[in-house]
## 1
Amino acid sequence: MNLPDSSFIPAPLWLINVLHLFTLSLHFIAMNFLFGGILVVLSAGSKDRWNDPVVKRLIKMFPSAMAATVTLGVAPLLFIQVVFTQQVYSAAIVSGWLWLGVILAVIVAYFALHRAALKSDDASRSKRAPLVVALLGMLYVSLVYSSVFSMAERPQLIHSLYARAQTGLILNPEFGDYFLRWLHMMLGAVTVGGFFVGLIGRDHPHIYAIGKKYYLWGMVFASGAGIGYLGSLTPYMPGFMHSPGIWALTAAIILSLGSLHFFFAKKFLPSGLMLFVSVVGMVTARQYVRLVKLQGQFDPASWRVSTQWSPLILFLVCLVVAIATVFYVIRLFLAAKPAQPGRD
Amino acid sequence: MGYPFWDIPIGYGILMAFIGILHVFVSHFAIGGGLYLVVSERAARKASDGARLEFLQKLSKFFALTTLVIGALTGVGIWFVIGLVNPAATGVLIHNFVWGWAIEWTFFVVEIAAAQIYFYGWKSMAPAAHMAVGWIYFVFAWLSLVVINGILSFMLTPGRWLATGQFWDGFFNPTYLPALFLRTGISLMLACLYALLVAARYPAGDFKARTVRYTALWGVLGLSATVACQYWYWKAIPAGIITKALQAMPTPINSLHYSFWFAGGIALLLVLSGLLVPRNLPFGVAVLLMAAGLAWCGAFEWFRESVRKPYIVTGYMYGNGVELAQAEQLRKEGYLVRLAFRSGDDDADLFRHSCRACHTMSGYKALKPSFEGTDRAFIAAIVQNTHLLKGNMPPFLGTQSEAQKVADYIASHLEMRSLGAIYGLQDVELGRKVYDIRCGCCHVLGGMDDKTKSFEGLNRGDLENMLDDAENLGEGMPAFTGSASDRAALVSFILTLNGGGKK
């Protein structure tokens, strides 16, 4: 019997890429709100901020933001594995234990956020400690992710690291590969966190001012780290400059400045939309960096395409139904009368 | 072979079981618990039963924390683990079923949103709206089972997919329906066990009595469905797989037997503490029920995972990630030329890619006790004939010299003293050990391919001659390469078997 050949992608490459980049952008928005939001809550404002209703609201939102981060992170991880199967698994195996540690770190962070959110007292200690734990957990996750995905762009490095040790305890030792990108991502998260803090506290001048500060300076520092990262890509720059990635990056920069402008004008809808599209642009630019780095070693276009039409259409239908249902349940929740004080 | 190998001191099976069973235990509760909550809420609201609503609210807090945190993340954890321990098989599943997973993800998104709103909306939402969210949660949670069940059951029974390669042929495979109903039954049973854990914290009294009895009924219903569907599931597994398992694989069969015992234990505790004396359900009994439920899940999943040996995808890919379609090519070229990642130690690389997915040297499914006190020639002969051994092992598809390299690797981790010296045995007892190690891997006394009867009437001289000619006695029989003392002891032991060999 001729057995089926599983070396194919079940949809056109462009479609898988679009789904990957779009869902990854959504994941980043949720993660950035969470990471940046926690950082802002921990570092900004006065000592009695823990009694501030906006801060309390933010802390109550964090577990849901974590749920969204995890849930929205599943899809891009799925789609990237379809195209970059060998690269992603190989890099993950070299870092096996550390990669697996991501799950533990997220569970700990998740519980810590629930603990902070469900604590009804106003004592700073009862909230600060779990938030710090959650932040550290997320920092671990971000570092391991950056390391693994930077290795996935360098198959030869994986080969040499694997020859050195097979026990799965290696991070990418070429820190320059990913440190600036990781820093850019983290500062970007602070930027987006500032946006959301300002948005949620828009009717509270002191909170809005904090949001503005973090949005502005986060963007300044994130830009610095981003420029530094681009500088580290010198050998790949010619390829990147000739790819659509440069246009995506340019658009992302312009849109993020536009978003900042509208945010300062308290026009949150255009600001938020521009911010999201700029994240999509950054994610797209990053995808082209990956392709340029892999040039000559792997070309995603080399996959045989064998589209599974009926499951694909069913997925798209389910996606629409799911989005509509999520909006419906959120509407039901928002339509409810707010809980009485003390009825927590 | 296209990936590096994650060489860790613990067995892959243990790692997979730890995360997989925990996930199964929580994720099935996430489905059944959703139904339990909304159906019970409806009844409580209808009866204006405030105490019961308060209980359900407490349960939903436990439910949300357990399912959203542990359930969701162990689910992602399974993904992480399978990508590490069997990237080739994960690649096969991803490429064939990515849309299945993507569909499940859309349900998962709704599930997560609805679970949180259900939990946070107890006090603020109107009853009808709150229950609507509860129903939405349950429907989408169950739909996610409908989808993932297709991929899980595919691995054991890919059915027509092996001929067509079509998504739906693999998805709606021979065990799809029984597995779906079985898992639905498990979900109901686990909903009861978790709810009893919360109910057991209440003081003895009328409320506790009616809540525990009502919940125990859910458990009895779920357990009955589970047991019935488990039989259906067993019958749906192709006869060839079952026959092989019964002949040569104690692990899945023992696991199945354990699952019956655990089911019996759950039934007994539910009837005694849940239905007969519900007023005083002690917390310890509820914990015991949870432990029995977890053990049941473990036993069943262990059966499901191990019964498909030697395959990870039956009839398509072996447990060590080698596709059947590559077999011919591998026999010609060997493994080494196809290993994409090399550590610089060929012996170790060959061992990792051919054996290490299931075996460790001295931990899980240890090879040390199987080979200690033997010799390189014997080990190499066994490596070349793994497909003949008990336990349904995948064939070794490398070259003869590669088998020798694997043997060298294994031998380098063994004490190369005589069996008598290692175990402090002599005479017949030493002979029994020699038999177990050199013969028992294919000829199990009282079990698979038992040759005891063929020894009847043979004397020491006949048996000596037989050992001299061992390599010509049948397919894959290795020459007897043990020491003279091992040989004499083995003969002495075989001479004791003439009564029927049931020792």
## 2
Amino acid sequence: MTFTAPQIDYAGLSPIITLTAGVVIVLMVGLLPRAGRWTCSVLTLGVLGTAAGLAIWQWGEHTDLVAGTLRLDELGLAALLIALFAAAVTVILSVREPAAEGAGHGAFYALLLGSVLGMAILSMSQNLVSFFIGLELLSIPLYVLCGSAVRREASLEAGLKYLIIGSVGSATLLYGFALIYGTAGSTDYNEIAQGIRNGGLADDTLILIGTAMAATGLAFKISIAPFHQWTPDVYQGAPTPVTSFMAVATKTVAFIASIRLFELALGPVEASWDGALAVLAVISIAVGNIGALGQDSIKRLLGYSGIAQAGYILSGLVVFDEFGVEAIIFYLAAYALMNLAVFVPLVARERETPFADDIRSVEGLGGSRPLLAWPMTIGLLGLAGIPGTVGFMGKLFLIEAAVGGHFTWIGVAIVVGSMVSLAYYLRVIAAIWMRPEPAGAGAPAIAGASPEAPESNSAPGSTHGGDSSASRPGSTHGGDSSASRPGSTHGGDSSASRPGSPGGSRCWLIVGVGMLCAAATIFFGIDPSPLVDWAANAGQSFDPFAG
Amino acid sequence: MDTSWYLVLSALLFAVGFSGVLLRRSPLVILLCVELMLNAGNLALLAMSRSLGDQDGQVFALIVMVIAACEVVVGLGLIVAAYRRRMPLNVDDFRSLRG
């Protein structure tokens, strides 16, 4: 008996293989007695950078992998690149995260890489089975990461809430998949579409129930109202770097996966789902924007804003054409930049002030720490869709897609939603620039009570100005982190509490990342053509509309 | 015997699981009910796979079992961690996050 080995496209699978190897290596290295926080985080950044490099190398390939369960094309790679970028920023933010200290850096980063691996599989999957595996591989490490700050009850509560709601969403999705599989006769997207067309099943009850349940399950994951209740709670309770990763990467990948599922596999029943999703989009825009008004916790505010943004992005899926897909990819990239520009200063402030993520933590930031204040301001203006930022261009494309696809009323909803959203985004910006810094803002977060330390407010601010002006916006992550090592080895949390000490060095890396995201937000807002070309390239690789 | 009976049974299981998630208060029981929902999906997959004469559904069901086990491991871990923190094991009392 001869054994014929299967044909394996190692080149096409290389990003996935890298991430899988990375999970194992980082976990193992984390167990070494001498492995510190920098060993693990630099290693993780290396894995993410390698995966990104391989993804860029495979850009332009169009093949089926693993017997057709994964599809290698620019659409999936675009989502993967955004997820890798978000993960790299999260790693930089997590270097001094208490949750990562408690869980062990190796375990923390291995879980993060595991989640990114799930994202890689999910964004490429064109089979119900690989979709489900990718989704769960993405979610299960995130449940753990959300609850990883075991000393804080809020974190455990967030992890448990996310686990329960996420599992209910997965189970609903699975039941929908079972019905779709049973009726259309296959788990492969192309064969499902063919089965529905050939069998004349577009009005079949089981297909429609299955589609509805799959949409519900996905709506739980991307926090579309009315399945959004967990979002603000989990965003607030999870460690902030994890929140930023969840907000950006999960949303991106889940949207790309829904594009494949709905437009390829369920394309023949488009007439049945587009109206329902359009209504969900408008409900999300309304619920998110109204819920965010009057929130004092910035993380909660961003949770509600994420619900509204999910509603905006959903309009690109509803229109069911190539321009809609391109608008989604553009907006997802823009959303990643803008959201990270807001989260990065938030993480820095959370560790410097005793106010955690309350709006008081950013009051007076414009005067004392302009290099943290600017990224946050630019990010918030971008999320609101102010011209000159990439958020404006993104919303423009989404509205154009909605109007072109005869969903003008969603375009109107996006405009009205953006107007309402200015109320809460500007409230934070006003707190940054127009309020005095509250007393005790310079005290470290760990202290809890607020010891008076007025002179420490100004000292770190001035040292920061000198430090972070040296950060080059174009520098790579690897270079960034190795360069910062000598400066921050002795920085520690203690340096912030010592007034007058050059403690600013400990987070110039964070400031640099924030400035990088903000600079990109402005750059692509003024000259969006590189990002537009990129999104068009990714959108054109996915073409179920021709058939 | 017709496939539809299996589907009816799986739909009933799913409904029992879902109402359990909504009505019960202990996170442990909620986790059990989520398992019930996932197994309802498994039953539907197996019934469909049998009626289609196709193996994919069986493979899918096996994979779902593994994933369900992973979810339970994480869920129980979180519940044990919460118990050690002397948090109330009642989802109605999870109130530190709201607003």
## 3
Amino acid sequence: MGGSHRDEVRSGLEAHLARLWRYALTLSGARDIADDLVQATCLRAIERAHQFQSGSRLDRWLFSILRSIWFNEIRSRRIRVGEGTLDASEALSFDGAHEIETNISAAQVLRALGRLPKAQREAVLLVYAEGYTYREAAELFGVPIGTVMSRLAAARLALAHEPQQLGEEMSEGKTPR
Amino acid sequence: MRLPDQDDLRLVAFLDGEISEAEGAELTRRLAADPSLRQRLDELRGVDTPLRDAFALLLEDAPLPRLLACLEGAVEPHAAAPAKHDSLRWAAAAAFAVLLFGAGFAAARFTAAAPSAEVASSESWRQTVAEYMTLYTSETFGAAEATTSDREFEALGRRVGVELDRERLSLLGLSLRGPELLQFHGAPLLRIGYVDEATPVAFCVLRDSEVDAPLTMAIREGFAAASWAKNGRGFMIIGKLQRDRIEALARTLQSRI
């Protein structure tokens, strides 16, 4: 039995690696930390494969593991050693190799997302990209549904008012690559 | 930047399908009667598509080869490192490099739910190597000419099922640097590093690779790459050199190995 759980968790991890990394990047705001966080999540999930209940959603289980490692271990450790985290807007944008002309507006949105408070960013990712319901997100965060709602509304408002700012940025000569 | 008020909360919940039926009906009635409320709704809704695109782009940006290597490492912690009893110096060097570069070569390109035992396709390992080449500098393979002995090269060669020594590997105009033993989907993968002035060049051999194939040239991730396969071993030499130069180097290696 243990073996089949392990196999299930392993193939689930493989199928969801990119999504886990995206979540890790959204939480940490730094690519190197995101890599570490996914690695730690893989280790922990394999270790605890027996705790996974077949039939429940494996991706949600993996996300909750990743989140708990971030909040309980990595973030606290980094703060303790005084590293802090990078400016998230840097990490959430793209390097030249990946930025495609047609996706400039998406890249701008990513930069704007990077400027949001982390709690809003996380809510936006989970609800809008990962399909969490308000209730599911609230349970994961351990907050009332109303808090999730106001994080999402604040984020949408901020993003909706972003274009003017982006326009200024571009007229200052920061042309998209 | 204004803070969201109760109407913003309702509008967002409405857009997200998270509003109660009664509140939804009430809001619909107000929207019909209030153009400024409709404008706010449009404003909030305008974020949906760019947000979806942005997150999709972020997903594409995930460093899958590296992540897959992390996963392989988590499943079989010993898989990426050479056997313990190998006390040769290269073993320590390779283990260190694997740590340093995140066991990158251990990875395949992401395919949903690909079984781990699946034999690496001739395409996927080459593409993975090419992706890792983009990270390399002239210093990656070591700062000086390799001091690896013939005996060590022979031992490495045996791991990938080919006969190797310094003479076979020496290439005109290139400085031979450190070898590195890696693995791809469980198959041993040997990478020999070279440097041409400041340009890293890698020659790779994968055991258990593919059916025999003649030399073909391709551009991978902006690098010139020559590939061939013989006796079930896959070969590739790749680097940011002129295509003809890579092809000539490949022919030399092909005639010797």
